[in-house]
Amino acid sequence: MNPTIGWIRQLAESWGVPAVLVPLVPFLVLLVALYAVIGLAAYGAKRAWPRADKTIAFWLFISPWLIGFLVFTVGPMLSSVYVSLTSWDLITPPKFVGVANYTEAFQDPRVGQAIKVTLLYAVISVPLQTALAFAVSLLMNVDLPGIRLFRTIWYLPSLVSGVAQIVLFLWVFNPQYGLVNDVLGKAGIQGPGWFNDASWALPTVILMSLWTVGGAMVIYLAGLKDVPTSLYEAAALDGAGRLRLFWHVTLPQLSPIILFNVLTGIIGALQIFTQGFIANGGPKDSLLFFVYYLYDNAFQNFRMGYASALAWILFVIIMALTAVTLRGSAFAIYYETEMGGRRRRPRLRKG
Amino acid sequence: MKLRNRLLPFGAGLAALLLAAGCATGSQPAANSGGADENGDITFSFWGTNSEAASLKAIAAAFEQANPGTKVTTNWIQADYEQKLQTSIAAGTQATVIEISNTSLAGFAPSFAEQQVDPTKFVQPNISEALKYDGKYYATPFTAKPKVMAVNLDAFKAAGLPAPSPTTPLSLDEFKTIVAKLSHGEGKKRVYGTSNMWFKGWLTAAGGGFYNADATACTFGDQQGVATAQYIVDLQKQRYAPSSIDIEGQDQAQWFAAGRLGTFSDFGPWTVADFAKISKPNWTLVPVPGKGFPMEVGGLAIAKNASGKKLETAKKFVEFVSTQQVAQDLLIQGNTALGVPIIAASTPTLEKVLPPERNLAAFTTALKTGLISPSVPREGQISGDADKGITSYTPLGSGKDDVAKILPGLNDKCTAALKQ
Fold first, then answer.
1. Residue with the larger pLDDT of the pair A300 and B19
2. What pLDDT digit, counting tens, does each position of B360-402 carry?
3. Together in a domain, B407 and B260
């Protein structure tokens, strides 16, 4: 333990701080020290540049987040670059191995399988989720009595956490005692092994993912509510039918929202973990998602260096796919302000 | 104003210094000291269920009582024990005394202190031998977890079979004949002669092993391994034993209580509590057929970086837990057991938990004859990869491929990984 932290803890103990609170004391003391330094720096900056008080206040206000981001996100990311160049089992000191982990990853057949499974999941599940969420939001956009209750019901599954969800679906898709095979059996159909069958495991997870489209549906619904009715009226006056209204008004108006949902969907799909973890990678590595394989190497095989290299490979894949999606979709996205449209709620000048 | 101007940089400098000192990495990670390295207080980390944790907490309290002025802070890690242990070692915050299983010892040995163990204090030499790595002791045993088999006496009676011997194990052929006679019925009411069969366990029972004796090669895919796998597959095919798909999401102890199993072979000391509630069907314990299932040994390791008074207390604590009757008796709490006590004076404690007709003495017999698998570094990866292959491709799991074709290939991969 760091001697300073040990000293602060001892001090706290000698002052009679309850034992459960003792670990918190060094953290709080260091936090106060940090803000003493930051506060003084801000004071000095204000004296040097008296007109920059708003800028200084801005940095002071965002400093808790900024410090957290630097310490808990950027710091570990930079440290993982170094770790990815080492062989480290956490017990013995890390050994520098250069790019050996990256070389191994490019030759590892299980990395290939993990990329294949993850991409396949993303390519199939993201369009399906997008289409379903969009279709449901169109249905939920009609004004009917009780529609709010329906919206709530559709949204509720999104609140179920990943582990609870997969445990629930392991039961639903249980080959012997599950609800799905029971219903299929009553219709005279012999149900598949679902999670136990290598060729059915991934489709089962994709099916499962459709259960939680409520989150995206709410975003689409908000977008639909925001489409100006004047556009529909103008198009209707020009003789547009329902299909044309949808194609020429609704879709273009919602295209930035669709892009947002697709992008976050792709990133989320590439980071899928829980389903693979609970299913232990699935039979014949059929659910060997990339992040699960990364976790497996880090915390089952204790190969921190290799796992860090895999994390950076995933980072590059996600960046590349995001960039391709952004560039590739540019022609299809309608931004109102760029196309000569005007702001719907222009700010009025005071006075 | 002037004084304030002078004091401010001074205060800031002091705060910055404190911050730098507080955030600097310690030169040498020390065992979790709770802020006072020079006193003899120790920390003790362990895994387990509520009742297992209760046992170990009671033992720590008994040690404090026997050694006034000594404090043992317990750290019950309820899930992902090895992962948390490994990260705590990397952070230098590991406990002074650490519970470790013989199967995981090899991977952690570099972070444990070497210990002096007297094998004669335990009921059989295998127990302490299990905690040796590279010829040295890195942990002291404090409990053993042999397996026995529960038999449904009502089912035996109904099938016209005599109850198996409480002390002599059945042969594998005798077992096959018996489970065939115990099995009957169809669909979800089918009664199976035996519970789902654990390949590693039955491999040991048949005289084979997952690794060879000196852990230089994997042997689960040799002739014996394939024959044992085929034995299990045959029992599953004839529906004398449920497959892993049949038992998915099911509690086999409940199946036994409902009369759906004739025998329950994977019965560890921790299973006693579940079965204690079962009065019907009538049941008893007998040895696992053949050479029995591999026995796990629970050990106590001391962090390599423990020193001074902490090290002294840690050694005293380990000695107390492993060899003192007051501590060994506490392994049994009510009708549940963390494991079987390993000193002769305490072995009857477990036997008395349930009436003699339940034959908990079968654990004592299994303890004396139990075989122990060698410990290999990277056990999780090596055995995990092999297990995954076995369960993915063969009917021992959810696969359909022929065990004779799959096991030798997986065995070669396993041996290659072992030699890396």
1. A300
2. 999 999 998 889 988 888 888 899 999 999 999 999 999 999 9
3. yes
Residues 48-107 of A with CB under 8 A from B: 89-92
Domain boundary among A46, A70, A99: A99
Residue-range definition of the domain harbouring residue B97: 14-146+295-369
Which has more pLDDT, A1 or A306? A306
Q: Supply the pLDDT for residue B22.
A: 62
Among the partner residues B19, B83, B249, nearest to A170 by beta-carbon distance = B249
Q: Choosing among A8, A91, A92, A171, which should be mutated to test the B contact, i.e. which has the most B CBs within 10 A?
A: A91
Task: Report H helices in B105-209.
Answer: 105-108, 125-129, 153-158, 172-182, 199-205
pLDDT digits (tens, 9 = 90+) for A317-334: 999 999 999 888 877 788
**Angstrom distance (rounded) from CA A212 to CA B356:** 54
Does residue B53 sit in the same domain as residue B92?
yes
Closest Cβ opposite residue B22 in set A5, A37, A170: A5
Residue-level pLDDT at B99: 97
Min mean pLDDT across A18-27, A144-153, A174-183, A245-254 is at A18-27
The tens digit of pLDDT for each residue in B251-292 reads 999 999 999 999 999 999 989 988 999 999 999 999 999 999
Identify whether B360 is part of a domain: yes
Check whether residue B242 and residue B328 sit in a common domain. Answer: no
Same domain, A113 and A91: no
ipTM of this complex > 0.85? Answer: no
Contact B145, B339 (CB under 8 A): yes
Cβ of B23 within 8 Å of Cβ of A197? The answer is no
Specify whether the CB–CB gap between B271 and B253 falls below 8 A: yes
Q: Which amino acid is at B321?
A: V
Judgement on whether residues B352 and B406 belong to the same structural domain of the protein: no
pLDDT at B150: 97
Q: With 70 as the cut, is the pLDDT of residue A349 above it?
A: no
Dist CA B282 CA B355 (whole Å): 12
Q: Is the dihedral of CA B257, B263, B267, B272 positive or negative?
A: positive
User: Which residues, listed in sequence order, are joined to residue B133 by a DSSP beta bridge?
Assistant: B136
Which of chain A's residues have a Cβ under 8 Å away from the Cβ of B398? 193, 196-197, 283
Asked whether B106 and B375 are in contact (CB, 8 A), the reply is: yes
Q: Can you read off the two tokens belonging to residue A315?
A: 């980072």
Domain membership of residue A294 as a residue range: 106-350
What is the average pLDDT across B22-27?
Answer: 54
Whichever domain contains A118, its CATH number is 1.10.3720.10
The enclosing H or E element of B265 equals: strand B263-267
Pair (A167, A211) in one structural domain: yes
Domain co-membership, A80 together with A115: no
